[in-house]
Design a protein that fits this description.
Keywords: Cytokine, Cytoplasm, Secreted. This protein is mostly beta strands. The protein has a single domain, classed as Trefoil (Acidic Fibroblast Growth Factor, subunit A) (Trefoil), CATH 2.80.10.50. It has two helices and 17 strands. The strands form four sheets. Strands 5, 8, 9, 10, 11, 12, 13, 14 and 17 form a nine-stranded antiparallel sheet that branches. Strand 1 and strand 2 form a beta hairpin. It is globular and about 45 Å long.
Length: about 200
């Protein structure tokens, strides 16, 4: 960075010349050719079950258009229908303090479904749509969540913040006998156990 009068100009070193003189060029010259655009690229995938604070597993039932935390028997867990999630971890060209960028998908009866969020009637809804999680995401996306530890003292449980609505986290809400997966606003400095997810 060079300061000329009151104007700052971004520069980068390009050549070491005679008498060890270092030559610079304005960084704008290289932007189109050298710098990466803001993008997400899949780095690794992990197979996990998602448990809430009550040790219930998240189960997706696309035929009923519902995802909820349920008590699951060992036999049901073995069959794994709608409960073995793939967590797609992405690296980003612009480092974020928000956490690791992840997306979720699940297989149900030989079909793949990805988790996304959509606005409906002024409310954010968590949905599972048939399809695959892409290898690269060129910009913002409604399938990306930021994974962080639940609290600094609880490193084995996590919370997942929706990337397009900061302060909104995956959580569960009781609806009759269901503990339905939702997006929920977190008040600052609040610890909300409904957002606590173990992998």
């Amino acid at each position: 960075r060079v300061k000329m009068s009151a104007e700052e100009i971004l520069v980068c070193a390009v050549q070491l010349g005679k008498n060890f003189c270092l030559y610079f060029v304005e960084i704008l010259f290289f932007i189109s050719a050298e710098l990466e655009c803001d993008a997400l690229c899949k780095e690794k995938i992990l197979c996990r079950v998602l448990r809430n604070v009550n040790s219930q597993l998240l189960v997706v039932r696309p035929d009923l258009n519902v995802a909820a935390f349920e008590d699951v028997t060992d036999q049901e867990l073995q069959s794994g229908k709608g409960m073995h999630f793939i967590m797609h971890c992405f690296k980003t060209t612009t480092p974020s303090s928000a956490g690791l960028s992840v997306a979720f998908s699940v297989r149900v009866e030989d079909k793949s479904y990805y988790m996304c969020c959509e606005k409906e009637g002024g409310e954010m809804i968590v949905r599972f749509k048939e399809g695959e999680v892409p290898r690269e995401i060129p910009g913002e996306s409604n399938i990306i969540f930021f994974k962080t530890t639940f609290t600094p003292y609880c490193s084995k449980a996590f919370k997942f913040e929706y990337s397009l609505e900061r302060g909104m986290f995956l959580a569960f809400q009781e609806e009759g006998c269901l503990r339905k997966l939702i997006l929920k606003k977190l008040s600052k400095d609040e610890v909300d156990e409904t957002m606590k997810i173990s992998l």
